[in-house]
Specification:
It is a single chain. The protein is of the alpha+beta class. It has a domain of 134 residues: Double Stranded RNA Binding Domain. It contains twelve helices and eleven strands. Strands 3, 4, 5, 6, 10 and 11 form a six-stranded antiparallel sheet that branches. Strands 7-8-9 form a three-stranded antiparallel sheet, with helices on both faces. A two-stranded antiparallel sheet has the order 1-2. A hairpin with an 8-residue loop joins strand 8 and strand 9. The two termini are 29 Å apart.
Amino acid sequence: VTFLGRFDDNAASAAGTPAAPGAAIVIAGSEQEDTGQNGRSSGEGPMPIHNYIAGHNFALPQPGIEGLKSGLRSKSAGKGMTDEQARASGLAEALERYSGVFMGEEPRRRARFIDLGEDEVVDPRRCMLFSERQYAEREIWRKRASSFQYVPLPFDEQAELDWSPVWSLSEGRQKYLPSSYLYYGHPEGGRFCTADSNGCAAGNTLEEAILQGFFELVERDAVAAWWYNRIPRPAVDLDSFDLDYVRALETFLARHHREFWVLDLTHDFGIPVMAAITRRIDKPVEDIVFAFGAHFDPRIALTRALSEMGQFLPAVLHMPSDGSGEYAYPDPHSLEWWRNARLADHPYLSPASELPARKISDFQNLQSDDIAEEVRCCQQLVEERGMEILVLDQTRPDIGLPVVKVIVPGMRHFWARFAPGRLYDVPVALGWLDAQKREEDLNPVAMFV
């Protein structure tokens, strides 16, 4: 397999050497080439949307009949500013998901939580972050028939479970999490824990995979703070980025009677996080589509959000203006959103009118020419906020593509996870809200992408 581009949207770099799961992870330096992603030489022509699907999406948890009824997407997907980027992205995601499937050969130990030492075990409740109310209303969540909103049983400290090793970059030693939290399809999955792809990433090197997995954690943590608290955020001044890709996308969407804009969701980590949003403007049903991106380089954060938005557009672009027709994506929660959501009913999707648009010069760019230094920067950002960064190396010897799952207990998935913590604390600390919201006042629309 020849990969056609760096998975972080940069130029290709050398492949890394697989490590044993739970082994010590040593961050090695490597030079990165300039991004070259200025949007001026992509050669896309009139169609700036590039998508591929590949293989089965093992990362969608489908516990029992609820998963079968939910109709969720069954493929991995890739996107990019160019056809080559999209193909590489789709193949990499398929291999990433395959590498995370439980095969029975993963290192495990059988134990009860209460029998493991405090210094060697990570409480999975700090990673999942379900609230006591969610556990109490578990049956209500289950009836929604969405794997994205599945609430497991309350964690039982007395239960004997499989535990697998992860490596703490922060403490330089091995720790344990339930195997069912770490690997798709583990026999105990869906009981107390269910594996998902949050923080999972492939890369040309182990360090690159860690970096991309961490960016996903930051993206979803920021999205959760914005979405569930329904906080209007400033627009991104797209003209200041001066990207031909953005102009081509604007022209393309206008032909389909759509407008689009981008919000700045950057939160306390200071890493650029953006939300790209588009809606139909020629019919009452607005077919609102949104997607997200995060990266040290604000240009890459922007193009990631826009190209990911392009992944969802084929489901709605063909819809006629009279409101007839069938959407091309059968997920019931997406269909409910497209058929009913209006910008007027979800004002947090619009740019905050009282805040100035954010120019490219307003964003901090922490990217360097040393990927190991970038990983250390991520580690420092985590530890400054009183948290710990953990890494599971999921690289498979039969594949050889470096794949990791990055875990930061305390950081929030953008699915509905309502335990106390950053979801409530960060918006107040940043001045986005005057006071914390109550759980019952959070956005009733659970994130469904």
